[in-house]
Automatic annotation (TrEMBL):
Name used for this protein in its record: Cytosol aminopeptidase
GO biological process, one term: proteolysis
EC assignment: 3.4.13.23
PROSITE patterns: CYTOSOL_AP (PS00631)
Gene transcribed to yield this protein: LAP3
SUPFAM superfamilies listed in its UniProt record: Macro domain-like (SSF52949), Zn-dependent exopeptidases (SSF53187)
Catalytic activity: L-cysteinylglycine + H2O = L-cysteine + glycine; an S-substituted L-cysteinylglycine + H2O = an S-substituted L-cysteine + glycine; S-benzyl-L-cysteinylglycine + H2O = S-benzyl-L-cysteine + glycine
Keyword Protease applies: yes
Function comment: Cytosolic metallopeptidase that catalyzes the removal of unsubstituted N-terminal hydrophobic amino acids from various peptides. The presence of Zn(2+) ions is essential for the peptidase activity, and the association with other cofactors can modulate the substrate spectificity of the enzyme. For instance, in the presence of Mn(2+), it displays a specific Cys-Gly hydrolyzing activity of Cys-Gly-S-conjugates. Involved in the metabolism of glutathione and in the degradation of glutathione S-conjugates, which may play a role in the control of the cell redox status.
Subunit field text: Homohexamer.
Gene Ontology annotations for the cellular component aspect, listed alphabetically: cytoplasm
Ranges annotated as spanning the membrane: none
Length: 493
């Protein structure tokens, strides 16, 4: 009871591959969805594709599900073997209740999240069985099913000798059951970008501006962070012109690109410092969002800016108490060299205004205080624009990659503008109080645009087990929310 059963139409043990004489590369798997039964319903509640598949095998799938244990709960799965000549294994996944929608309390679409979690579980189970090709039931929402499959199967193992078994997922797109009527998921919104920088250089208007250019732009705050490292800073500028009107004001995305953050002279504790290789998460999010927008051919102009450098301790590094001058002429007292992200973003935000932007959105793994405040549930959003907040919030409800609005009060501005030596201090007057809020208030001092938002993504930088369709490690959040936001913006006047 509760164990997967095998129906072997071609003899053998019922294990995947036992009815195939060819190599493992000939095997295919299938992921199908089933809803939780209603109280007065004694039958199995299939998705449209699953019901059609069950009819094609004369009701055997329904029979096996009834015999194999209690009804499948959300995110749980069972695998059956030998049901169909075209599939070595069929994973049936629980989608939860049918007909659920947006949950106001959770601020996401329960139906979409359930599909992502369930499809991810099924694909991973077939990957463990070393099934190289998997067809995926759209479960009523092909986009969410595609995201669940691709995100669930992805794991960064490029540097490992033992790698995860490679799987090619495809989305089944035919309402009636016709095996292999599929859509390759690489063309869906969550496209994986391997060999990323080479791809950028070859496919987009990308420029890597050297230190001499940064100096010519008088980005003194940015340069002050980079001077402690042996590696020179590089300012990445990426243009995507998707609008038929090339003069359309662009959406400008700015990402913090600290490629390693030791804390500088204000050195971080050694425990957990290895995770600071991901302090360029904002830059990665921005670049990934633009690449995806281009792959989708969104009719919008987007510019991505990413100041890249290391924050390292050395004889040349910033020292607490130093005063530096930003691009807009404001002076900054650097009392904590580990508050470096806001320094490089200050100059990048000043530069962003030179493009007369429609809106400016920056993303940064900026403060540990943001992780303390919200954890991994949502990225914090600080904005001067109600319209921009509403657009970002709506996008996050659709993607399930949530954002939450945080205060941008003058109360916090006063804490960074009261400095003994300069116009601004790079940490708040009360450094442990409202750290995420004072960091946002600092950034606002370099913004004149009417529509600006700062996304502090420190809390969502990694995934342990909070998001079921993401593996452990660096999460890539909130890329999908930025893409959805850009897609909606592209349709608005």
């Amino acid at each position: 009871r509760g164990r997967p059963l095998a129906l072997c139409s071609h003899g053998g043990t019922g294990r995947p591959g036992s009815r195939y004489s060819g190599s493992a590369e000939t095997l295919s798997g299938l992921v199908l969805g089933v809803y939780e039964k209603e109280k007065d319903d004694d039958g199995v509640l299939f998705t449209e594709a699953a019901a059609s598949f069950d009819s094609s095998v004369s009701g055997k799938l329904r029979e096996l599900l009834s015999l194999s244990g209690p009804p499948l709960k959300l995110g749980k799965s069972r695998v059956f073997y030998g049901l169909h000549q075209d599939f070595a294994s069929v994973a049936v996944v629980g989608l939860g209740k049918k007909g659920v929608g947006v949950c106001g309390k959770e601020n996401w679409d329960n139906c979409k999240e359930n599909i992502r979690a369930a499809v991810s579980a099924g694909c991973r189970q077939l990957q463990d069985l070393e099934i190289p090709q998997v067809e995926v039931d759209p479960c009523g929402d092909g986009q969410s099913a595609a995201e669940g499959a691709l995100l669930g199967l992805f794991e960064y193992d490029e540097l490992k000798s033992k790698k995860k078994f490679p799987v090619t997922p495809q989305l089944h797109v035919c309402a009636s059951w016709e095996p292999h009527t599929v859509y390759p998921l690489g063309r869906i919104k969550i496209r994986p970008c391997h060999r990323f920088l080479r791809w950028l250089t070859n496919r987009y208007n990308a420029s890597q501006k050297p230190q001499s250019w940064i100096e010519s732009e008088q980005m003194g705050a940015y340069l002050s962070v980079s001077k402690g490292s042996e590696e020179p800073p590089v300012f990445l500028e990426l243009h995507y012109t998707g609008s038929p009107d090339s003069s359309q004001a662009p959406l400008v995305l700015v990402g913090k690109g600290i490629t390693f953050d030791s804390g500088g002279i204000s050195l971080k504790p050694s425990s957990g410092m290895d995770a600071m290789r991901a302090d360029m998460g904002g830059a990665a999010t921005v670049c990934s969002a633009i690449v995806t927008a281009a792959a989708l051919k969104l009719p919008i102009n987007i510019i991505g800016l990413a100041p890249l450098c290391e924050n390292m301790p050395s004889g040349k590094a910033n020292k607490p108490g130093d005063v530096v001058r930003a691009k807009n002429g404001k002076t900054i007292q650097v009392d904590n060299t580990d508050a470096e992200g806001r320094l490089i973003l200050a100059d990048a935000l000043c530069y962003a205004h030179s493009f007369n932007p429609r809106a400016v959105v920056n993303a940064a793994t900026l403060t540990g205080a943001m992780d303390v405040a919200l954890g991994s549930a949502a990225a914090g959003v600080f904005t001067n624009s109600n319209w921009l907040w509403e657009q970002l919030h709506k996008a996050s409800v659709i993607t399930g990659d949530r954002v939450w609005r945080m205060p941008l009060f003058q109360h916090y501005t006063k804490q960074v503008t009261e400095s003994a030596l300069a116009d601004l201090n790079n940490i708040g007057k009360y450094s442990r109080s409202g750290g995420a809020c004072t960091a946002a208030a600092f950034l606002r001092e370099f913004v004149t645009a009417n529509h600006w938002a700062h996304l502090d993504i420190a809390g969502v930088m990694t995934n342990k087990d909070e998001v079921p369709y993401l593996r452990k490690g660096m999460s890539g959040r909130p890329t999908r929310t930025l893409v959805e936001f850009a897609a909606v913006l592209a349709t608005e006047p």
